[in-house]
Amino acid sequence: MKVKLKLFATLQEYLPADSAGGQVMLELPDTATVPDALGALGVPMNLTHILFVNGRHVLRPERETFRLKDGDTLSAFPAIGGG
Amino acid sequence: MDKIVRINMADLSSRIEPVPEEWVGLGGRALTSTIVATEVPPTCHALGPSNKLVFAPGLLSGTAAANSGRLSAGAKSPLTGGIKESNAGGTAAKMLAKLGIKALIVEGVPKEDKWYSVHVTKNALTIQEETETVGKGNYCLVNTVQARFGLPVGVITIGPVGEMKMLSANISVADPESRIRSLGRGGLGAVMGSKKLKFISIDDTGTPPVMPKEAVKFKEAARVFAKTLLDHPVSGQGLPKYGTNVLVNILNEAGGLPTRNFTSGQFAAHDKISGETMYETIVARGGTPTHGCHAGCQIQCSQVYNDKNGKYVTSGFEYETIWGLGANCCIEDLDDIAEADHIMDDIGCDSIETAVMFGVAMEAGVLKFGDGKEMVRLLREEIGKGTPLGRVLGGGAGQVGRIYGVTRVPVVKNQGIPAYDPRAVKGIGVTYAMATMGADHTSGYAIATNILNVGGHVDPLSKTGQIELARNLQIATAAIDSTGMCLFIAFPALDIPECLTSLIDMINARFGINLTGDDVTALGKAVLKLEHKFNLEAGLSKEHDRLPEFFSKETIAPHNAIWDFTPEELDTFWNF
């Protein structure tokens, strides 16, 4: 299946050099989870603090086993803030 | 801090008073709101002689405590018609604290149509007629005044927008590099303008540092407190690197980035205005990505943004400004937004109110969505010069909506709604509705828990838990705003228990008192309640604690979210 992975802030250093717009399209097994998708680019789970799948938060502890679907967008952020 | 200074503009006199017993434990917002609620008739005209403009450093200002340099200003707001407190960094809070001034209260209006300035030193306060800086912008004014005294004096100032008493007018302070920070919201610059006070300058020469009563205890608490700021990933890493504008992308991902005057929750060109892009731009142009707004700031979320030629354009370039002129007005060029930010700092108007206003003005057809060049022209040539059109636009989003017959006008209590859509981030919607200040995200920053997973998580798209969240955050914020602390200490305070306990320890050591956590919560509740009482007596009823109708009628993409709190549900906010 295909999953779009978007990385933000300091996590962007894990993007391949030829990627554009802070995102990559991943080809993953149909059983892939959130950690599988992040692992495809070597992003350690413990560096991610805020995860969205299709714009909805995926929280601890479910995020460790959260199954992705074909066409999903996974967005990952470190701890950030502002206001 | 042992004195209250009163300046009477009616007879150009001043006097020093001892601090009344009931004000001893107050600072910052708690003190400005208490003085306004006690001494200003709630039904008075905000630009008339009965209103008072109060400046107060926080309880910890002037000490060695990290991030304690915020200055509060309070008055009845000409924009909301209710009570107002607004705060900023800069150098003035520390200097006032070192001079022992707990509050500086400006009363009355002058008899003659002249402008005045006030100069405060260790030994004297002088009020004199001012001519040289009248009509000048804030950047020029700060340079002129500091050159006049030959010192980096503290400066509290208004620009031309404040002189013309427009409702978007802010008050600015000089930062440690003689640039501009602003007490932005609620039109307090118009109140200062109504008193014909162009600036206050502060010279703290000859004053010792503020010494805590229990120095050893204070030093240890300050060390623990500073460590929590460094240890938390938001205050220790995220904010210093990217500044507040890192929020563009996350709000866009969450579908809560108000776009095209609040008609969508996502902006296609978000990456062009994002914190990540801004960071790269600043570094490439030789700017400064990490910078503090006041001495002693450890978080350093500010930055210095240069143009393509490496020349300074602006600092303190905040998410709300960039969202407001960017996504909300569909302007994709960060350089246009930076130029607008510089102009707003210089002419002295609130960048949130003005950005929300431009969204409404674009919907009205005054200018086209996305037209950054025309926006810059309107700021410089119309608002800054006070032309008839400029005065219309300078009155803020609500005024422009009324004049042009726009129904999608994002304001609460006539104050523009900031950078988070209340339908997609419902906790901040409750804050907008219920805040005594009008729509103000800083009153109870539910984004932390709704979006950023700080202080736990409450689903932004669900109603569950939002009223309690907004209430608790507003109570805590009212207390923090009284300490002189930057509100961003709330990020570690929500996750690291020692942050709050060491903050209380510092206050106790500073004054030789024994506050508990419950006392601090009680202070926050008391501040909110006295502000609410003032608003009710000023004529702002519970019907003003509501979001505009369109939020309940129009869904917002991508989540098709809608505002669905009932009035009865919202009114339970005040059950404490």
The major sheet of chain B is characterized as: 6 strands, mixed
The total beta strand count of chain B reads: 17
Distance between the termini of chain A: 37 Å
CATH architecture of chain A: Roll
**Mean pLDDT score of chain B, rounded?**
97
State the share of residues found in helices of chain A, binned by percent.
Answer: under 10%
CATH topology of the largest domain in chain B: Aldehyde Ferredoxin Oxidoreductase,  A, domain 1
- Secondary-structure element series of chain A: EEHEEE
Structural class by helix and strand composition of chain A: mainly beta
Number of helices of chain A: 1
Q: Considering DSSP H and I runs of 4 or more, what fraction of the residues of chain B is helical?
A: 25-40%
Provide structural commentary.
The complex is a heterodimer of chains A (83) and B (576). Chain A has a single domain, classed as Beta-grasp domain (Ubiquitin-like (UB roll)), CATH 3.10.20. In chain A, 7% of the residues lie in helices and 27% in strands. Chain A is built from one helix and five strands, in the order ββαβββ. Chain A has a five-stranded mixed beta sheet with strand order 2-1-5-3-4. The longest helix of chain A is centred in the middle third of the chain and has 6 residues, at 34-39. Chain A is globular, with a radius of gyration of 12 Å. Chain A starts with a strand and ends in a 6-residue tail after the last strand. Chain B folds into three domains: 3-202, 4-Layer Sandwich (Aldehyde Ferredoxin Oxidoreductase,  A, domain 1); 243-415, Aldehyde Ferredoxin Oxidoreductase Protein, subunit A, domain 2 (Orthogonal Bundle); 422-495 and 514-576, Aldehyde Ferredoxin Oxidoreductase Protein, subunit A, domain 3 (Orthogonal Bundle), CATH 1.10.599. Helices cover 40% and strands 14% of the residues of chain B. In chain B, helix 6 packs across helix 7 (233-242). The longest helix of chain B is centred in the C-terminal third of the chain and has 22 residues, at 517-538. The mean pLDDT of chain B is 97.
